[in-house]
Amino acid sequence: MKVAVLDIKGKETGRKVDLSDDVFAIEPNEHAIYLDVKQYLAHQRQGTHKSKERAEIAGSTRKIKKQKGTGTARAGSIKSPIFKGGGRIFGPRPRSYGQKLNKNVKRLARKSALSLKSRQKELLVVEDFNLETPKTKDFVQILKSLGLENKKSLIVLGGTNNNVYLSSRNFERSEVVTSSELNTYKILNANSLVLVESAVEGIQSNLSK
């Protein structure tokens, strides 16, 4: 599948890049996408929640009333969960929400997400570019030229580029990642996917294994 390469002014350069059908034109597997997104979101959870149970509450261990003759239920400690200020029953404990996922399923999910973007005409290929200094204004001008100023976009670079990354960091509707950082959630969360020309080879080599 051949796609026209644009310059940063949004005009065609006259060149085309060949996108592999095995990566950008497969039949999307919705269940694989679901599993990969679910794993990604689970890994975003810190799992540091904690509440005190009755053994951790500070308080007297004295029996608060006699066992019989009060006409109410027996009670042995003020730290009991049934009293105000007592411990919590089955409260949350620190835990990891991480989930395991077969790497072949993850690869299938990413190829499915890229194929969806390609099928929905939400994928652009732009020639490699650089910014002399980190300026949000210059980065926004590039997005304007590509017609993406008011859209949520994901720009994929071939490698680390600090000037482009720092220029985008203050613009909430756009995110810049490298081809090695690309994941299913970020692809689907963007309205438009912009691949820098040098990133195409990296994506295809990573997903064609």
TrEMBL record:
One of its GO terms (molecular function) is structural constituent of ribosome. Keywords: Ribonucleoprotein, Ribosomal protein, RNA-binding, rRNA-binding. Pfam families: Ribosomal_L4. Residues 46-77 are annotated as: Disordered. InterPro entries: Ribosomal_uL4, Ribosomal_uL4-like, Ribosomal_uL4_dom_sf. It comes from the Bacteria. GO terms for cellular component: ribonucleoprotein complex; ribosome. Gene3D superfamilies: 3.40.1370.10. Forms part of the polypeptide exit tunnel. Belongs to the universal ribosomal protein uL4 family. NCBIfam families: rplD_bact. Part of the 50S ribosomal subunit. HAMAP family: Ribosomal_uL4_B. This is Large ribosomal subunit protein uL4. The lineage of its organism: Bacteria, Pseudomonadati, Bacteroidota, Flavobacteriia, Flavobacteriales.
